[in-house]
Every structure is written in C-alpha cells, then in structure tokens.
Design a protein that fits this description.
alpha/beta; 213 residues; single chain
C-alpha cells in the first residue's frame, strides 16, 4: 500500500445529457460530441503513465474510458470495471426530465429547485429529500454514495505502487458528492463532461489537488 494519484474523469456527453433527463444507473450512449470530449481528454492525459484504469461498469463510462486509453502513449497494464464507481442512483426518478423531477421534490418542501436546496441546506439534504420523495425509497443517500467510494478506493489503495497514477472514469453527481464532502463548493461548479479532477490518496486522507479541470 502506498500513496498514489487518482485522475477522476467524468464521462463524455450522452444522449440523456442532451435531453436533460435523470441519468444515474440508467444509461445512454455517448453523442458524437461526447466521443470528441473523451478523445480530447485522452490527449490531455496522453503522457501520464497509468498503472491502472478503473471504469464504472455503466456503458457511458466504459466508452469514455476506452477512448481515453486509445490516446495514451503507453499502454495501461491493468483495466477493470467496478460498480462502486457508478453514478448516484436516482431510484424511481431514473430517466425522467430533470426540471420536472426537481420541481416535484423541491416544491413541497418550499424550495424552487435543487440549487436552492444546496444553497440553503447542502448536498446531503438533496439526497435525503430525493430518497424521501422516491415512492420506492430506492434513491441513494449521501452516505451510501460515500460508502461505495470508500469501498472502491480501498481496493485501489491495497494494490497501488508508490506514487503510481490511477485513472478512474465515473460520473458527474458522483464526483460532485466527493468534492462536496471534501469541502469544495460545487453549487455553480458541476463537473463538466470529460473533465478531470486530481486527487492524492494516502493512508491518512484523500485530498483534492484540483477539481473539474
């Protein structure tokens, strides 16, 4: 076990992104723009020597990850898929229009939308209200998302060589949750498609070096 660098990448633009629909564990393909974004990110990272690449097992993350790998100057010796790095699960709201969903969740609580909830009560309250409004109560809580993250990181950390670089391709709300937990203001700073956040992982802590670059 050793300190290592985590390059945390959001997938490229998808069909559901363009249609502004809730996209958690439900999936859709990358658009041509999303493919171009993934390729551009791969070129930005092409000189980084990665010891391992770990993709969310949702197809949009896998497609993004494979396009990134194709741009790298050195092959990655270990590539795997880990459901711990899936997007936040939105339960019964999966696939629905984003604006309508947040009106349904926020208005009965006296808010106009998700941003107002975050501004007044924080991101954990967003997750709590969604779970409470979900008729099946399947939607993930803030703590459930963090538990998945820690479980996925533990496996990476156990195998990491000193100062190695690890590529993780994951999802926007997942990354936002991690950043929020580590004290980053994400209210008007949601991870862009194919953006990169750099983290330093050690036995003592996980630290964001930069976010949404």
């Amino acid at each position: 076990m050793a300190d290592c660098n985590i390059y945390l990448v959001r997938h490229g633009e998808t069909l559901f992104n363009t249609l502004k629909r809730m996209q958690g564990w439900c999936d859709s393909d990358l658009t041509s723009q999303g493919q171009a974004q993934a390729i551009a990110t791969g070129k930005k990272l092409q000189t980084v020597k990665f010891a391992e690449a770990v993709f969310s097992n949702l197809s949009r993350a896998v497609e993004t990850g494979n396009l990134i790998l194709q741009q790298l100057k050195q092959p990655v010796p270990r590539v795997r898929y880990d459901p711990n790095f899936r997007e936040v699960f939105f339960g019964s709201f999966e696939g629905l229009e984003i604006k309508d969903t947040w009106q349904r969740i926020a208005q009965p609580q006296g808010y106009h939308g998700q941003s107002e909830i975050i501004a007044q009560k924080g991101l954990p309250e967003v997750r709590r209200l969604m779970k409470a409004a979900d008729p099946q109560h399947w939607a993930e809580s803030y703590d459930q998302v963090l538990q998945r993250w820690r479980k996925g990181l533990q496996q990476i950390y156990q195998q990491a060589a000193p100062d190695s670089n690890i590529l993780i391709v994951t999802h926007g709300t997942f990354i936002r949750t991690l950043a929020d937990y580590h004290g980053i203001d994400t209210l008007k700073n949601y991870p862009a498609n194919a953006s990169v956040s750099l983290l330093r992982l050690s036995s003592r802590e996980v630290k964001f070096v930069n976010y949404n670059q």
